[in-house]
Amino acid sequence: MGSSPPALGQIYRRTKPQPTDQKYLTMLTARARTPTMAAPQLTESTITVDGQTLFYRQAVPGQQAPKLSVLLLHGIRFSSETWLNLQTLAKLAGAGYCAVAIDLPGLGNSKDAAAPAPVGQPAPGGFLKSVFEALHLGPAVVISPSLSGMYSLPFLFQHSDLLKAYVPVAPICTEKFTAAQYASIKTPTLIVYGDQDAQLGEVSLNNLKNLPNHKVLLMQGAGHACYLDKPEEWHQGLLDFLRSLE
């Protein structure tokens, strides 16, 4: 039987490596030559949609072509900065996706832009279509919390061919559409809500569950902005869903 391999620290104290030691040296050399994954590239810019200037942030993988694109919308008290600070943009890009977060009209760095509809009323489905075109997005995943439902739901019903998948997070306006309309949509959907969301959690679920191709991510102990309350669970659930689309 051969002798046990020495500890790594002993290798460098010998003047001449033994045969068994050489395997360790080769392994260490290979590790040293392995390039580390480049950090995601984050940029900020603006687009013009229907004559209005909208701000956005984009994160892309450092060394590879994106597997697919993800468009992140936001609620009335938030903006694209929410996804930046929560590390959602970085995590998506690190997992190989192109992540784009826009500031909706009248909010964040798009506060001077006029919204295409009053708050709480469905916006024209063509609005997000124009956003897609301005950002040069192909079929993409749309993440839509709260207020942004007024934009994402009309888009879902009018332009589902542009949606790779839909991730509604207790959005508004779900009651504006019929069960038959929901049943006609085949887009893969991850319905997300917190069990402490007494405002929109169950209400939105009861309407969205009429989408035939859906999964539900219920976040225990989380409120309306459940992704803020349970960021690790949010990111894990989101990434698992995105991987299922590949």
UniProtKB/TrEMBL annotation:
Subcellular location: Cytoplasm; Nucleus
Source domain of life: Eukaryota
GO molecular function: acyltransferase activity; hydrolase activity
Reactions that this protein is recorded to catalyse: L-lysyl-[protein] + acetyl-CoA = N(6)-acetyl-L-lysyl-[protein] + CoA + H(+)
SUPFAM superfamilies xrefs: alpha/beta-Hydrolases (SSF53474)
Keywords, comma-separated and alphabetical: Acyltransferase, Cytoplasm, Nucleus, Phosphoprotein, Transferase
Gene Ontology cellular-component annotations: cytoplasm; nucleus
Protein role: Acts as an atypical protein-lysine deacetylase in vitro. Catalyzes the deacetylation of lysine residues using CoA as substrate, generating acetyl-CoA and the free amine of protein-lysine residues. Additional experiments are however required to confirm the protein-lysine deacetylase activity in vivo. Has hydrolase activity towards various surrogate p-nitrophenyl (pNp) substrates, such as pNp-butyrate, pNp-acetate and pNp-octanoate in vitro, with a strong preference for pNp-acetate. May activate transcription.
Family the UniProt entry places it in: Belongs to the AB hydrolase superfamily. ABHD14 family.
This protein's name: Putative protein-lysine deacylase ABHD14B
Annotated source species: Alligator sinensis (Chinese alligator)
Gene from which the chain derives: ABHD14B
